[in-house]
Amino acid sequence: MSTRARPAATRLTAALAPAAAHLLPADDRSAARARAVLRRQLRGWRISGELADSAELLLSELVTNAVRAQVQAQGPAASEVGVRFAWADGRLRLEVRDVSDELPVMNDAEEDDECGRGLVLVDALASGWGVDRDGIGKTVWVELTESADAAGSEAGDISARYPGLAQKPAPAPLSR
C-alpha cells in the first residue's frame, strides 16, 4: 500500500434543474401552495426582486383561474391542477394546467367588480402569455424576462394603463 498522498477530489455541487413541476389539489388553497413552491424554486435559482414578485402574482392569478375552471368543468370532485416553472437564458416561464377546455377571457372589469382583472395583470406584467390546448385540457403559460422588469419600470405604473386597477385597494397578503 502506498503512503503517497492523493489530491482531494473536487466535491460535485448539486445543480437545480432548469424546470420543476408540481401537482396541486384543485381547491381554494392551491394558489397559496403554488406561490410557496415557486418561492422555494426561485430562491434556488437566485431570482428575487420585481421578477420574483411579478411571478408570484401571475402564478397566483393563473392557478386561481385554473381551479375555478376545473371545478366548473368537473364539479366538486375536480382533482388536480399542474404547475410548471422553467428558467433559461434570463427567461422565467410559468405554466398552469387544468382539464377544462374553457379558454381564459380578458374582461373589462368595472371599478366595483371584485373579479375579472387577472388577465389584465397577466397582459400588463408578462413578456408574453398564451394558451396551449391538448385535447384533454389546456395549459396557460406566461413568460417573464429580466429585461421586462426594467422595461416595466420605464413604462410606469400599470395603473396608468389600466385605471380600474388603481381604484381598488390591494388585498391583504395571504399568510406565508
Number of discrete helical segments? 6
Sheet/helix structural class: alpha+beta
Q: What series of H and E elements makes up the topology?
A: EHHEEHEEHHH
Percentage of residues assigned to helices: 25-40%
Compute the average pLDDT.
75
DSSP strand content: 15-25%
Distance between the termini: 57 Å
What composes the largest sheet?
A: 5 strands, antiparallel
Q: What's the overall geometry?
A: globular
List the main descriptive attributes of the protein structure presented here.
5-stranded antiparallel beta sheet; 5 strands; 176 residues; 6 helices
Short description:
It is built from 6 helices and 5 strands; from the N terminus they run βααββαββααα. It is of the alpha+beta class.
What does this structure look like?
There is one protein chain. This protein is α+β, with helices and mostly antiparallel strands and about 180 residues long. It has helices spanning about 30-45, 50-75, 120-125, 145-155, 160, 165; strands at about 20-25, 80-90, 90-100, 130-135, 140-145. Helix 1 (about 30-45) packs antiparallel against helix 2 and helix 2 packs antiparallel against helix 3. The longest helix is centred in the middle third of the chain and has 26 residues, at about 50-75.
Write the layout of secondary structure elements.
Blueprint: E1 19-25, H1 30-44, H2 49-74, E2 80-88, E3 91-98, H3 118-125, E4 128-133, E5 138-145, H4 146-155, H5 158-161, H6 163-167
